[in-house]
Sequence to fold (184 residues):
Amino acid sequence: MLDLLITHANLPDGRTDVSVAVQDGRIVEVAAGLQAPAHETVDAAGQLLSPPFCDPHFHMDATLSYGLPRVNQSGTLLEGIALWGELKPLLTEEALVDRALAYCDWAVAKGLLAIRSHVDTSDPSLLPVRAMLEVKQRVAPYLDLQLVAFPQDGVLRSKGGLDNLKRALDLGVDVVGGIPHFER
Fold:
């Protein structure tokens, strides 16, 4: 018996009214009009069935912070970076976690099941890193969250930047990113 049978689905490659059989978390057959016993059957009713979406570049530590501490009047990246600098002293781990979890729920509802998010390593407390690692653990059952150690203020130009980056990696951040135009 199949775990899941999806019927009457349209696929991104143009095939229409197909069935997809799933067993042990893997697609085992794709065919038109497939009939098989399954623990669960879903009628896609002609809707698109696609792989999950992936967001390869996000800043989850800053998500849902519009207007905090003020609105980006120019709409530019440079003002956005300046705003993040103004917001950092006001951040709490609880607020970061709450906003990131809310975003994750929205993302999954729209079909995102993988996110690569930069997380600022500039503050010696690594508050954003700790918060996003907590989020990563909590969403792990339903979302692949990869965290990028991101020295927002520069890894070489800010005091302790390299040490902060190494500490973030030791805590469990997955990969290293950078902002080369901020370096000397």
User: Anything to note?
Assistant: Residues 93-109 form the longest helix (17 residues). The beta strands are 2-9, 18-23, 26-32, 38-43, 53-58, 112-120, 144-150, 175-176.
